[in-house]
Amino acid sequence: MKNRRAPLIHAFLLMLIALTAILPVGGAHADDLQAMMQDDKQWVMPAKNYANTRFSNLKQINAANAGQLRLAWSFSLGSDHGQEAAPIVVGDTLYVVGAYPNELFALDAVTGDLKWKYSPRVDPSSQGEACCDVVNRGEVYDNGKIFYNTLDDHTVAVDARTGKEVWATKLGDISRGMTLTMAPIAVKGKILVGNSGGEMGIRGWVTAVDENTGKIAWRAYNVGPDKDVLIGPRFHPYYKSAQGKDLGVTTWPPGRWQIGGAPVWGWLSYDPQTNLVFYGTGNPGPWNNNQREGDNKWSTTIFARDADTGEAVWADQLNPHDLYDYDEINENVLIDLPINGQMKHVLVHPGRDGFMFVIDRETGQIYSADKYDTQNSMSSFDIKTGRPVMVPALTPLPGKNVTGICPASPGAKDWQPVAWSPVTHLLYIPHQHLCMDYKASEVGYIAGTPYVGATVNMYAGPGGYRGEFAAWDLTKRKKVWAIHENFPVWTGTMATAGNIAVYGTLDRWFKVVDARNGKLLYKFHGPSGFIGQPITYQGKDGNQYIALLSGVGGWVGALANAEIDPRVRNGALGYTGAVNDLPAYTSGGSSLLVFALPPGKANAQQ
Amino acid sequence: MDNFHRIVAIIAAAIVIVVAVALALIVMPGSSPKPHQRLANGYSGIIPAGALLRVPVTGVYPGGVPAGLNPNMQNPLANDPDAAQRGMKDFDAFNCSGCHAANGGGGMGPSLSNDRWIYRSSPANIYLSIVQGRAAGMPAWGAMLPDRTVWELVAYIQSISQKPGRNFGDTTSLSPPSPGYEQVPAGQIQTTTPWKYTEPMPANGAKPGG
């Protein structure tokens, strides 16, 4: 009996397995987001993957043929504010969100035809609450929906196929100075969102929103008592100065943590092995350090948190009692590196303060912190105590104009994210090279208005160049090559197995360089300065495409698209003086540019 | 009561009244009514409300004539030589410098240092922008600022904004460098007339003075 039935049962089981593989079973079938991140034909989140490597294995465009690239098509988003987003590509569709008013566009990834656009009713008053242009850093896909944030504090979910709104949840209040500008991530059915407003005395947090219902699942504050910061029995910080009860209260003057800043307007990464989310927090409020004695935890801190509950597992505060607005919201790239002969699971964090941090992502132990650009505001970083060694002569005292501080407030590198190539083993760093004069002054807190207390004047750093695209060797712990640019390089970057790296400049150049040595392979003069994040994908026509938004703005470039007087150096929180010639190079714009090899060259192998 | 005691009683009563009035003036800042009382009594600023209502925000009038409108209302503090100085302190105290930058260079909010105006440039237009707020994010300061403070701010803004030039338009170029000049940075000098202190604009974002 058994012998006759077994083959039939086997056949039946095989048929079932085959069916579940090929039939989409309504909403119950969850996308395997991690598999989609590995599929280089797609690019489903701005950072490419949970590890934030921004690296693609595509090789069709490579160092040998990149010189033949040409513009395949372009698309205008219709609103001339700074365009910092990364587009994403899911299947056949490219999605891109614009700066305020935060319209979301769905385009055919091959032809550029518009499929639909979603136009939220974003409150125009939110424009006056954003410190650094009305930017948006991008959207994310999961389970048939596109998720992104609007300037006026909504997180929205839109059906990826039809563009219809699924839910829109308001997470904060612009009248208290809060906005949303960051690109969220999707982890195990939750959308993780961080807030903006460190210049406005907001209270920073990360909020997890259920991706199906839009309801808040958990919220972890970055300042305040342990119960709000979700510091509990799982919290085991490596360094002594992070150990103690309610440090998010006691390291501030009484009550000041309530307007203490520590926003999360940068990048989140995720390690599925340990189920930990990593992110850094921004500056404490106000900028004037003399009004907030103490370490001001947990500003400028890298957190490791449980993705399901938000509970803190470890925390490293990189700039205790921040003096210069050195937010630490920059990306944390998750890779494995040899440390003292042993392979370790680390995160690489290019610090705003100018140190390249390599940190054990299980414990928070800092293995190294090397200066990657001109920096005199700290003499060194002590990896035993986990604290920088400051320079007393450069402390901003009330009313004292301290000169020659490097790096300037935007840091050695700001939000613009690096890329890591496992082929070249190099980290590609787009960044600026600026110093500043800084004068602190007393400021009063008025909800909905800036809580800063500083007059800043920035200018080019030593050597006279204001920006750089550099390649850093994490094993040798040094820069191996660098391209100087006239202006800060404010775009993100990406690298591929074809040995190319891509970035754009404020003076309108889209550039593709050889990832091994920095040789310029291709450049294109775009319609407006570039501050977006490049991506690459393969269309269903078999061609590889590279996409980058053009549209100058952001903290660095707002004076080229807005009513800012280039003759007053202290404008734009001090950035104006460093780029007061930018309006002679570009005006505002909002175009998506998509490049490919010419027809017929598409199949050329390296 | 005999005369002596009557005089003492009168003096004592007078002292009590004077102290009570003084306490009232000290404990209640200024002599203005509480906010909810102000609303109940209506507007009580320097310029009559009806006149302010007639200040246009545009130069386009049906029929081409601003009949009954008040396009050129002046600052009631125009003859107060210290108004701009006080306004400069108000500009920091109320975080105007946070959005508009020192000397009105602009940033989160538009520049107040140049001669371009979105809502017209007369003192009353500036006053109304402050009191009413504006759609792209200017808060409605009428909820917080006393009327005199607003006119002080107007005096300061009038003082820091560049007077309109002779040209119809402005040129921005690299060669020759245009505008080619900048204000001395606010970290070095605090003044209500920053346009009196200019220096050449260094090329390529270099530090002024080398």
Strand and helix layout:
The complex is a heterodimer of chains A (606) and B (210).
Chain A: H1 2-22, H2 33-38, E1 55-56, E2 70-76, E3 88-90, E4 93-97, E5 104-108, E6 114-118, E7 140-142, E8 145-149, E9 154-159, E10 165-170, E11 185-187, E12 190-194, E13 205-210, E14 216-221, H3 226-229, H4 247-250, E15 268-271, E16 276-280, E17 301-306, E18 312-317, E19 333-339, E20 342-350, E21 355-360, E22 366-371, E23 378-382, E24 387-390, E25 401-405, E26 419-421, E27 426-432, E28 434-440, E29 454-460, E30 467-473, E31 478-485, E32 494-496, E33 500-504, E34 509-514, E35 520-525, E36 535-538, E37 544-550, H5 554-557, E38 591-596
Chain B: H1 3-27, H2 35-41, H3 49-53, H4 83-93, H5 96-100, H6 123-132, H7 147-160, E1 181-183, E2 198-200
Antiparallel strand pairs in B: 1-2
Give a quick precis of the structure.
The complex is a heterodimer of chains A (about 600) and B (about 210). With about 600 residues, chain A is mainly beta.
Domain module count of chain B:
2
Helix count from the secondary structure assignment of chain B: 7
CATH topology of the largest domain in chain B: Cytochrome Bc1 Complex, Chain D, domain 2
The proportion of residues forming helix of chain A, as a percent range, comes to under 10%
H/E element string of chain B?
HHHHHHHEE
CATH homologous superfamily caption of the largest domain in chain B: Cytochrome c-like domain
Share of helix of chain B, binned: 25-40%
Task: Describe this structure as you would to a colleague.
- Chain A is mainly beta and 606 residues long.
- Chain A has 5 helices and 38 strands.
- In chain A, the strands form 10 sheets. In chain A, strands 1-32-33-34-35 form a 5-stranded mixed β-sheet, with no helix packed on it. In chain A, strands 2-38-37-36 form a 4-stranded antiparallel β-sheet, with no helix packed on it.
- In chain A, a hairpin with a 2-residue loop joins strand 11 (185-187) and strand 12 (190-194).
- The longest helix of chain A is centred in the first third of the chain and has 21 residues, at 2-22.
- The radius of gyration of chain A is 23 Å and the shape is globular.
- Mean pLDDT of chain A is 95; it is low at 21-28.
- Chain B has 210 residues and is mainly alpha-helical.
- Chain B folds into 2 domains: 1-31; 39-160, Cytochrome Bc1 Complex, Chain D, domain 2 (Orthogonal Bundle), CATH 1.10.760.
- Helices cover 37% and strands 3% of the residues of chain B.
- Chain B has helices at 3-27, 35-41, 49-53, 83-93, 96-100, 123-132, 147-160, and strands at 181-183, 198-200.
- A two-stranded antiparallel ribbon of chain B has the order 1-2.
- In chain B, helix 4 (83-93) crosses helix 7 and helix 6 (123-132) packs across helix 7 (147-160).
- The longest helix of chain B is centred in the first third of the chain and has 25 residues, at 3-27.
- Chain B is extended.
- At the A-B interface, strand 28 and strand 29 of A face helix 5 and strand 1 of B.
